[in-house]
TrEMBL record:
Residues annotated as domain Resolvase/invertase-type recombinase catalytic: 65-170
SMART domains in the cross-refs: Resolvase
Pfam family, one: Resolvase
Protein's UniProt name: Transposase
Keyword field: DNA integration, DNA recombination, DNA-binding
UniProt keyword DNA-binding, yes or no: yes
Active site, renumbered: 73 (o-(5'-phospho-dna)-serine intermediate)
GO BP terms: DNA integration; regulation of DNA-templated transcription
GO MF, one example: DNA strand exchange activity
NCBIfam families assigned to the protein according to its UniProt record, in alphabetical order: excise, transpos_IS607
Amino acid sequence: MEDSQMTISIGDTAKELGVSVKTVRRWADSGKLRFERSPSGHRRFYLADIKRITPRDFNQLEDRVTINYARVSSSDQKEELTRQIQVLEAFSGANGWQFETISDLGSGLNYNKKGLQKLLKRIMQGDVGRLVLTHKDRLLRFGSELVFAMCEEYETEVVIINKSTRHLRK
């Protein structure tokens, strides 16, 4: 049998991918993994498809999180931070996205803010499917394009609310 047509059981698929049978079932049910049914009704997965999946693909198979990021420069702007968070959460909620919110208090020139570091780490781990900002400069005053390039590399959509268009950086 040609390798591209060879199929394997759900258990073998789970072993190949290093995930549980339940996870394989969920991915199959959502259309993320192609399968066919055997005459006895069991799922059979195409070995060639399974062999092509890379660790980075796992993050695309799982639902990745939307992160809302808010930042203000100083403690006297806490009301503005609260307003940003409310806008971000209302926007993400209205779009039906499951989200987390990360906020920072610190200069847009400071790259060592806890929230920013957490955000960058999550993006590089492939956990973030979407980054939502109220304005481009809320991320960083200078250097946001570098973060956007990182988002492109890790296939993270960037949504800037004050622009009327969303764009996938891919």
